[in-house]
TrEMBL record, chain A:
Keyword Mitochondrion: yes
Name of the protein in its database record: Small ribosomal subunit protein uS8m
GO molecular function: structural constituent of ribosome
UniProt subcellular location: Mitochondrion
Family: Belongs to the universal ribosomal protein uS8 family.
Keywords in alphabetical order: Mitochondrion, Ribonucleoprotein, Ribosomal protein
Coiled-coil ranges per UniProt: none
Gene3D superfamilies recorded: 3.30.1370.30, 3.30.1490.10
Record's function text: Component of the mitochondrial ribosome (mitoribosome), a dedicated translation machinery responsible for the synthesis of mitochondrial genome-encoded proteins, including at least some of the essential transmembrane subunits of the mitochondrial respiratory chain. The mitoribosomes are attached to the mitochondrial inner membrane and translation products are cotranslationally integrated into the membrane.
GO CC terms in record: mitochondrion; ribonucleoprotein complex; ribosome
InterPro entries tied to this protein: Ribosomal_uS8, Ribosomal_uS8_sf
TrEMBL record, chain B:
GO BP field: translation
Keyword Ribonucleoprotein: yes
Family matches, as InterPro entries: Ribosomal_Su5_D2-typ_SF, Ribosomal_uS5, Ribosomal_uS5_C, Ribosomal_uS5_N, Ribsml_uS5_D2-typ_fold_subgr
Keywords in alphabetical order: Ribonucleoprotein, Ribosomal protein
Upper classification of the organism: Eukaryota, Fungi, Dikarya, Ascomycota, Pezizomycotina
Cellular-component GO terms for this entry: cytoplasm; ribonucleoprotein complex; ribosome
Residues covered by region (Disordered): 40-68, 262-295
Protein name according to UniProt: Ribosomal protein S5, C-terminal domain-containing protein
Cited Pfam families: Ribosomal_S5, Ribosomal_S5_C
GO molecular-function terms, A-Z: RNA binding; structural constituent of ribosome
Gene3D superfamilies: 3.30.160.20, 3.30.230.10
Amino acid sequence: MGIHSIANMCAHLQNATRARLGITSLPNTKYNLHLALALQRAGFIASVTRGGPHPPAPEEFQTLEPEPVTTANAATRRLWVQLKYWNNEPVLRNMQSVSKPSRRVTADLNQIGRVARGFEAGMHKGLNLGECMFLSTDRGVLEVREALEKKVGGLVLCRVS
Amino acid sequence: MSAARPAARSLFSRHLACPSIAGFVSPSASPASCRSFHASPQLAAGRTKPARKNKGLSLVNEPGKKPWPEKQIREITAKKFPQYTPEELAELSKIYTKEQMASLQAGEAAIDPRDLTIQGRLRKDPYRINYLDDFSTIQPVIDKRPKRNQAPDPMARFMDLDHFTRDLIEWADQFEVGEVTGTLKKLEDFVPVEFRDKSEAQWPGKVRTDAHESYMAYLQEEAAKGKDGKSAQGGDRLLRGPTDADILSYILRRSSMTDKGLISNSEMAPGLPNKVPGVEGMYKNPVDPEDEGLDEEGKYQDLKVRTGMTVKEILNLRTVVVSRRWVSNQTRLGKVGGTSIAVIAGNEKGWLGLGVAYSTEPSEAMNKALLKSIENMKPILRYEDRTTYGNLECKISGTVVRLFARPPGFGLRVPHQIFEIARAAGIQDLAARIPRSRNSLNTAKATVQALQNQRSPEEIAMGRGKKLVDVRKVYYGGQL
């Protein structure tokens, strides 16, 4: 359970940046939150905030102290994401999910090393210029270079460029 | 003849056909009954009745017949053929010139109205026209177009050199040039008196040379005077030669044949000469001395302004035709064929442009495509001035082009259209694949688009807020 929401998230973020939206929201799941935080670390999105059905005010995005999730409000919680644009072009252009619930794709440390250097490894194609791959490891959701630094492999979630 | 006659005339013809009204016209010979609507002659076999003796068409004073009384003849003459009244003459003289009036009156005087009365009658010969007309007006549909000029001279030939020279001299003689006033001195005036009667060949050498020298000096002096307009001997007359209009008329109108300039009935308008005197050189494109004579036709002048390049730089660009197609425009008049040409232009230093142009004339299409491609040139990103930044992909229609950056020394291992484009752009290491349609025009478009739309790593890094370092350069200590 959970990995299907990653696929939805990929498609949704790609649609949102192509529509030149400033902010958008995602379902509040653990997987989505961790991937969103990894995207933020990689610089693809500006910020992630947990909020209600309505977005927080733009100035509150960085500072907002989210109210704790309770059984009363859990169903209405959403992740609000600020998208980034540079020179009139979206920073996040393509976001393709790799694993899906019926077929989970993993990459071990060897493969990660090759892929990060731009070579193909197994079924993984090498990363192109400016491309990132996100993995779900036992150290959390990491970008491929972070995973390489920490020497962990894991489940390949998506490729972003 | 299919042309309709005016109704009045047809009515008149029918009246003539009726013997009770115009008693002197035979019904069988009446114009209406003879009127044919086709070109073939009538069959004689169809006539069963023998032609009746025509009494009505006899002359007034036919021999063996009682002549008309003189009084009746005078009456009819005065009624049918009256003289012009002074008022009518005054009206006519408003329309016609004096000469025309004189000839009109001479014509009137030449024919006695009495003769018209006693001799005039309707024609009944086989060559008569089958309608009544006095031919005073030209009806464009029925009548042939009048030929105002004579037929061309059958003996006329193109002038040979002698003819031409004589003709030219004849033409030039109508202009007063130079020694027409008789006031200029001649060569003989510059020799001593004793030699004046002798011919030039008999003069001693010294005398002859002196005479020539002083004569030339005199002529130059006179010419200078003429130019200043100060000559006491009619200087402006001295200079009056054929004007530009005269020369143009000589070129256009003067016959080049030995027909003495006969104007004949020709459908051909005289052609324009290549160089019209007086206009020649006035509408020439100003030649920029910066071009060093490389662009005499002015082909690149517009492009020079648009691109800011010199003609030499433009000519040094690498241009290649990447696609040439025969295309047709289907109109209601049928298919109109034309050529569509795609040209790649590049300076081999990172500038690349594609121009596509169409024209019914292939050379014109080529020209247009060339100029467009140069105008469309844009800088492209090149990694280390030899390959692309990463792998690129672009899709135009059914054509997908994938370009792969390659290490130094790899070379251009690419399909031929992409090879030309890469060479024009100055890329030396590249691999490519065209997995789907290999249409040459779309391949060229997709390749150019892929190369021109590259994102630079700096731009990506700035967008993501990251610091970027090219490891290759760091590792080799900036030696690359």
